[in-house]
Amino acid sequence: MQQPIFIVGTQRSGTTLLTRMLSAHPGLFIQNEMGAYGVFDKPYTTEVLHDRITGRLLERHAIDVTLLESKGIQWGWKDPMLTPHLDELAEHYPGSKFIVIIRDPRAVVASYIDNAWGLGTNPYTGALLWQDEVATQLEFCCANRHRCLWFTYENLIEDNLQVLTRICEFLDVDFDHGMLEYYKKPLEFGQNRSNMNTQKPIEKSSLSKWKAAFSPRQIGIINNVCQDVMTELNYTDMADLNTCIGGLEKSYYKLHQKIMGELQLQYQLRKARRNARK
């Protein structure tokens, strides 16, 4: 059983961009999100888990893992939904490798709100989600240093050559310049508003867009929730803004998330079903 590569990060952290870059390497294939629902339903054995993953690749995306392996291609699966299952994957795939990409929480939360997928409908609940997921990812990396590589989205954007070289060394493959021209390769998944920027060269201006998305108070709310992990990751820009949040305000934000999050999710699912029928 070949040991796959797993790529994780919070939603809107650049995981799709990274997948595009790595899959432009002739010796790598990373499947973009295919849904984790049902894959980890218990009870299961290692063989059952492997059959579920490879079976879904074949049934939904016509990707034959045995064919990839026969060509010497390393394969993997990228999905933010894998974060709660990192320990399970590590246990059942003892030789697998994990790549974690982390992005500034202010940028992530701004994207949550803009994309309206119900992930974070306001700065407070979006920050809570980022804090919980990134803390889980970093804890996993700390406990599995020999098989994990993590870096920030900002590192990838500002010095993609250096980061991609590190990834190739980690995966034990030669560097390929095609990864720097990922946008020239046809999409292997459906185009939508969320991934359209992965079809063009990197724009460093994207790193600071979050500053125009929030008021100073909203930035302070995110900083307040995420300050410990932000300090660890050296996210210091405007980190001096810190807004204390009262209990009543927290309750309002959580209610807002519960109602608006569900409405947004149902709308997006209906839209996706309509598009699939066209």
Automatic annotation (TrEMBL):
Its EC number is 2.8.2.-. InterPro entries: P-loop_NTPase, TPST-like. The keyword Transferase applies. Keywords: Transferase. It comes from the Bacteria. GO terms for molecular function: transferase activity. SUPFAM superfamilies: P-loop containing nucleoside triphosphate hydrolases. This is Sulfotransferase family protein.
